Hints:
The structure is a single chain. This protein folds into two domains: 3-175 and 290-323, 3-Layer(aba) Sandwich (Rossmann fold); 184-282, no CATH class. Helices cover 43% and strands 14% of the residues. It contains 14 helices and eleven strands. The protein has helices at 10-18, 24-41, 73-77, 91-101, 123-129, 168-175, 181-191, 212-226, 231-239, 243-248, 254-266, 271-282, 302-313, 317-320, and strands at residues 3-9, 43-52, 58-59, 67-68, 109-112, 136-139, 155-161, 164-166, 192-193, 198-199, 295-296. The protein has a seven-stranded mixed beta sheet with strand order 8-7-6-1-2-5-11. Strands 3-4 form a two-stranded antiparallel ribbon.
Amino acid sequence: MTYDRILLDSANLFYRLKKNLRTSLEIVKRMINYTEGEIKSRLKKDGIVYILFDPVSYSDLGESKNFYFSINERKKILSDYKANRIYSNLYLETIELYRKYYIYRGDQIKLIYSDEHEADDYVEPLIKSFNGEKSVAIVTTDYDLAGYMSDKPKIHMINEGWDKPFTSADFEKLFQFKPTPGANILYKSLFGDKSDNIVGAIFMKKAKFNMNVKLLCRDYLKYVADNNLTIDEITKEFKTGNFQESTKRQTKTPFDALFLALSIVDLKVPIMEKLYTNIRVIRSSLTDKTIEPFIHCNAENATINDVIHKAIFGQPFSNTFGKVK
């Protein structure tokens, strides 16, 4: 299948293709070959590739393997966000090579980056800008981006191969609820994500839930997905929930059952506060905002492209690539 729009998670691609390679040049060659081969071969004639980047990091390029994002929006909310993540010391230099390779490739290749926002922040506003008129492939193995998948229009996640796209039906089999932006944000807020150092609201220290609360979470997630509730509607439902009214109802809704369980524990442990903080961290910081200032593309420049190409595929890096600004 070919697609009108392809969204490529560059950091995810780096780690998928890095494997046992030992230099940035080796890795970037593999990334470029994948983009020129796999990506472009699945793009419709008038299609567009959007390459999504995480913020440029301030680091020691590998001495400590720590990357510090000084103005990252998520770290403003949760200082421990991604604090335990170990990065390859080849990551930054490889990503910079990759980005510069595509900066003068014309309107069909658009790079999206900024100092404030991460790659997944751009997906929601991009999908909305297509107005349901475009088929989309999201190239990543990150389930954070799976919430935007749908059958109409076709929005698939390419996490294994192009001949086996990950679909809404595949997601539902795995997670027991349909993927929607609201449900996926709520799932991660409740259950957490070790890779991002996010503790799920139901796994806070001293919050002693029995296994039943997980089932209550699953039931409510299915309700949220089936009714396509937005994350704002979900948050409002929790903030305006009434313990006494939920208790009095003989037939409990999925929300009532979960709300009562969380509210009881919230008397001793700030479960609700943790839930709202997680939601703020996980949701796109660009919801309902324009991303035009972060989209970068230039008309093709044969001279610069030739210099960059020769630098990566043959000539000494220090003598050639350093001339490109």
